[in-house]
Structure formats: structure tokens, C-alpha cells
Design brief:
2 domains; 8 helices
């Protein structure tokens, strides 16, 4: 007689339940990812077959959720938000209207991504650095 998923994956079920109930964290999800995690939770609870790839995806999702609330990650996120908001303030003053609009939209999009997902891609960071380097020296 094999053990049920509930006894084998007790911790994963508990953590997935907490993750899916966390409205602040789940607000940044795409609908597809939220549905995927909910389906994984249902498979675990209903004693469905769990492949190693599914288990890895579950662990990755749980680890990202735990890191989202880690003190060091929160501190890094706040520090990054301060830098990006400073860049937005400088852009508002020192760019012409046609150039300013799309750059500010991109900057505010990056700020929203930091708030909801907790990270910025390498390309986004490089773009922010390039925009900052083009600023006049007085603005910095």
C-alpha cells in the first residue's frame, strides 16, 4: 500500500495553501501562473500523480514566495525602488515631452514590477543605467 500525497507532500501542500491565500503576493501573478499553482495544489490534495518536474515547479514557486518576504530581499527591493524613483524624478524635469512620456511609462512599469514581483531583469537594469548616464551632470 503506497502512502497518500497528503502524508508525502504535507509541507508542500501547507506552503502552497499559504502562497495561494497571500493576496499581496498573488496580485503580481499572471493568471496562467496562478491557475498552474492552484492545479498543482489540487493534484497534491487529490492524490494525483506528481512528476519530478511538477515537484520542482512547486518548490521553485514556494521558494520565490518565501524570498519575497525575506528581510534582505525587502531591503534590496526598497533600495532599488528609491533609485528608480529618483530616476523618474530626474526624467520628469530633464527630458522633452516626446521623449519623456515613453521613458516615464517604462520607468513606472519597472517600479510596478519591483513592487509586485520583487525583481528587475538584467536588460531593464541596463536600460535604466543607460538612461541615467545620458542625464546632464547637474541633474544627478
Amino acid at each position: 500500500m503506497s502512502k497518500s500525497n497528503y502524508t508525502i507532500y504535507k509541507n508542500e501542500i501547507r506552503d502552497l495553501r499559504k502562497l495561494l491565500d497571500d493576496e499581496d503576493y498573488c496580485a503580481g501573478f499572471t493568471k496562467g501562473f496562478h491557475v498552474f499553482l492552484a492545479e498543482m495544489h489540487m493534484k497534491l490534495v487529490s492524490n494525483g500523480k506528481i512528476t519530478p518536474k511538477m515537484l520542482k515547479a512547486i518548490h521553485d514557486g514556494i521558494n520565490k514566495w518565501k524570498m519575497f518576504y525575506d528581510e534582505n530581499e525587502v531591503w534590496k527591493r526598497e533600495k532599488l525602488l528609491k533609485k528608480i524613483s529618483k530616476l523618474a524624478q530626474i526624467c520628469e524635469v530633464h527630458y522633452f515631452a516626446s521623449d519623456k512620456n515613453w521613458k516615464l511609462r517604462a520607468i513606472y512599469g519597472i517600479m510596478e514590477q519591483i513592487k509586485t514581483r520583487g525583481f528587475v531583469t538584467k536588460k531593464q537594469m541596463e536600460w535604466c543605467n543607460a538612461v541615467y548616464k545620458k542625464m546632464p551632470k547637474k541633474a544627478k
